[in-house]
Amino acid sequence: MKNEHKLAANSIGVVESIVMGTAGAAPAFSISAVAATLIASVNTLAPASILYCGIIMFGITLAFIHLNKAHVNAGASYSWVSQIFGRQLGFFVGWALLVSSALFMVAGSIPSATATLLLIAPESVNNPGWVTFIAALWLTFISAVTLKGIKPTSYLQLILTGIEVIILLAIIVGGIFQYHQQSIHKFSLSWLSLTRFTPSEFAIGALSSIFLYWGWDVTLNLNEETKNTTTGPGWGAFGSVLFIILIFVSFITVTMLVLSDDEIQQAGTNIIFAIADKLFPRPWSYLAILSILMSAVGTIETTIVQFTRTLFAQGRDGIVNPCYAKLHSTWYTPWVAILFIWGFGLIFLFLSSFFSSVNLIIKDSINSIGLQVAFYYSLTGFACAWYYRSLWRNLTELLSYVLWPLFSSTFLIFIAILSIPTFDLITNLIGIGGLILGVVPFTWNLQTTWKKQAKP
What we know:
Helices cover 75% and strands 0% of the residues. By secondary structure, the protein is mainly alpha-helical. The protein has one domain: Amino acid/polyamine transporter I.
């Protein structure tokens, strides 16, 4: 590897890695986007749905952890699938991550803009033009920070995620303290029971729950910049996924304790504020809006990091234009890739301004992303199971290296197939069409490579 293709090694430790993984899952943003829909679908089984989908997702986490021990590469899923199943399939795994990240420039930037407007100009919060303008400002600011280097990126993330998590924990503790004896929905351990699900109920709950867990894998895209490259990123993934499972299950349980069914549906994507408003006097309840702002901004940052490290790895391998592997001479960041996702995000935001409502922008973006994430997560799980199929030494390794990732990947494929008929035409065109569109750059790059090889 040439020096110009080396990222800033040993820049972040396990704590920063856990914070980045937690921020990637965007707890406050994800809860706001999913909670009301999930509770409407499965009612008091919502905590169980999140818990068991988290356990299933942990199989994908194990796949990332084990594959990273075998091969450290900033491309993560793209690199591993390329080595195990071939560069063609590896390219499309990387492409799925790139497209889902680009779409999230809209889905993540929009909540940061609406939260900002709620605090400074609430009369403009439903104006797509103003929302996309503020979102563009946030996107530009975060792009500049990530360009500056992984150190300032991790420092900013510690602040953003720290504020977000403190506020969420305060709401969880406040809800339990005030409503444990007079809860709206009477708590029962049956809320966490797997046996109460029918197969259809579990599938319906999973459609909403799976989105909650996307984003923690940024810890593995930072493996070349993390201390103890073979184990540090894995501990970061393990710690962040364990933490977000706990916080998601706890918060959805508190939601059921504090809010009635009507209040949950009326709150919609403002569900965190609705809970805070019942627990704390104003203006303290407005800290809930701040948590969503911190969450949305933080996950924009991790999305940019994940996108640019994947594109960097592909450029380094020559599977896309090598210019994306160029690193800044001082900050050791893939500056061309960062400028690319910044410009791409601005274009997506401009196009989104023509949607009739802000909620429609977020809904279509999230559903489309879900299809692409299921694709690249599942193939990573299959790659792990295949790679270790004859390397396991005991039953524990058979379970964690092969069977658990294999089961989780199969489940994700099942959920993706089940969800396609429930989505509208636009969502499926963006979600599935975005994957198919990868044929164009793949073919272009293949032809370019052939021409270079044909030259005498």
